[in-house]
Design goal:
single chain; 120 residues; mainly beta; seven-stranded mixed sheet; four-stranded antiparallel sheet
């Protein structure tokens, strides 16, 4: 199986920065997609940013403030979040599409989530 472990969440003041990390481990042949989603209270889970080797996709609400990056050697994805706003408050979930065996089906995995709270 595959595990995604996130870190880096916390409480930050408006205008501040945080960096989230997510490391994938387990029986991994390759990782096609890695990224981040978030879910605020009372709202649906939404895409924040994903990267797959093609042009990175960002939610309009975070463009210019958040940057996703990936270290393929470490199976790790990062989310640098700058100029944070109260509306960025949510649980952030790591996401990956993983091939366990060459040429076989790929599977989606989710991390357990890390809380990001932006408040003064």
């Amino acid at each position: 199986q595959v595990q995604l472990v996130e870190s880096g969440g916390g409480l930050v003041q408006p205008g501040g920065s945080l960096r989230l990390s997510c490391a994938a481990s387990g029986s991994i042949f390759s990782i096609d997609v890695m990224g981040w989603y978030r879910q605020a209270p009372g709202k649906q889970r939404e895409l924040v940013a994903v990267t797959s080797g093609r042009p990175t996709t960002y939610a309009d609400s975070v463009k210019g403030r958040f940057t996703i990056s990936r270290d393929n050697a470490k199976n790790t994805v990062y989310l640098q979040m700058n100029s944070l706003k109260p509306e960025d408050t949510a649980v952030y979930y790591c996401y990956a599409v993983v091939a366990l065996v060459a040429g076989q089906a790929k599977y989606q995995y989710w991390g357990q989530g890390t809380q990001v709270t932006v408040s003064s």
